[in-house]
Amino acid sequence: MMRPFGYFVHHQGRGHAERCAAIAHALPAERPLTIFCARDDIFPDLPPQARIVRIPSLFEPTGIEAADADWVPTPSTLHCAPLGWPGIRQAMARMANWFAEADPALMICDVSAEVAQLARICSVPHVKVLQHGDRSDAGHRAAYDGAAGLLAAFHADLAQPEWDAAMRQRTCFAGGLGVDTRVPERELARQRIGVGVDEEMILVMAGGGGGGFGQAPLGVGARSRPGARWITIGPVVRDWHATEPANIQHRGWVDDAADHVAAADLVIASTGNTTCQQILAAARPWLAVPEWRYFDEQHRKAEALAAAGVACVRPHLPSSADAWTQAIETTLLTHDPVRQRAMIADAPAADAAHWLEALAARLWPEPGLAAGADPAVTQPLPSI
Fold it and tell me: Is residue 105 within 8 Å of 360, Cβ to Cβ?
């Protein structure tokens, strides 16, 4: 029987869980997979060899924590390690006990610098999921430098410039990982969401990791282009002073986001990973407006998207009608659908699973294989 893989999944949003599920389905059926997460309701269907172990959240207090001990310094190698939290002790204990009992081949971490370092301290090889952002701090460097490999759910051309050749060589780039990148036919998508064939449609979309865009600037945008039909999906921040025209409609959470993206003539969206992959796969004109995230994740990703020529980026939503007109016209004029589609791999989950299996084989050679031999020399996916 194959040694198991472990997988830590951060429970904010759904992108981490969707990546995990995609990899789980692509791994060999005989490879056991134990997933550690604070929630079990965010996962798509999993294969029979995968199981979820609920652990307390590492990031949210329960109300029974010890008295404030913030006067004790936090070392630079840790991000979130408050003292006196029983939930953190319980979560780390469950993972450490599993390490001892299961003797795993790999621990995949998506994402926590502390969990990655826990695996390394427990003598378990780990794979760290790589995200955009200013992550040169000691905590991230410890997680990256101690990893057996790095996994990036985006194309190699979206790598940040400071990631050197040695770091990229250790990274599996899998553009589209965890996202259903099958794009519905435009006319059929429009029929399903109730948009006319000849209507100009502008889609505003926000994911589950934040609060969404403000209502007031969207109202200004809709007024600036009255002939277009504006539709928002996901959260919108209500503004008491917003005055909205009749050509904007807020649909909230929908189950058919892919249809909305496929139907759109232009998409306005932040730069969460799932959102990015959906828009790139559909090859739609994209006005990208990053939201606040820890370590400036979305802003650094926006920079990478702009450098690759696959999105028109602004630091915030336009604040006047003239600014909206200029931003939309620039987005339409600079659109490069061929370049966008090239960001998505044909089979990203299969690529990632093959890379993980080859990495495990290298870490745990079969009996009789010469010491230090590499049974499957892996290379990063090619850039375009």
Answer: yes
Decide if 16 contacts 110 (C-beta within 8 A).
yes
Q: Output the CA–CA distances (angstroms, integers) from residue 305 to 179, 287, 317, in the order listed.
A: 18, 11, 17
Q: Which residues neighbour 113 within 8 Å (Cβ) at sequence distance 6 or greater? A: 77, 78, 79, 139, 140, 142, 143
Short-list 150, 152, 177, CA closest to 278: 177
Q: Measured at the alpha carbon of residue 98, what is the angle toward residues 63 and 47, in degrees to the nearest 5?
A: 95
Asked if residues 272 and 207 have their Cβ atoms less than 8 Å apart, the reply is: yes
DSSP letter string, 139-189:
HHHHHHHT-SEEEESS-GGGS-TTS-HHHHHTEEE-TTTTS--PPPPHHHH
**Element (DSSP H or E) covering residue 80:** none
Task: List, for the chain, all residue ranges whose pLDDT scores fall below the cut of 50.
Answer: 369-384
Instruction: Yes or no: say if 196 and 221 are a contact pair by the CB < 8 Å rule.
Output: no
263's CB contacts (< 8 A; 6+ apart) are 186, 189, 190, 193, 195, 201, 203
Edge-to-edge strand list for the sheet holding 126-130: 50-54, 33-37, 5-9, 106-110, 126-130, 149-152, 171-173
Reported as a single tens digit per residue, the pLDDT across 194-227 is 999 999 999 999 987 778 999 999 999 999 999 9
Indicate whether this model's pTM tops 0.70: yes
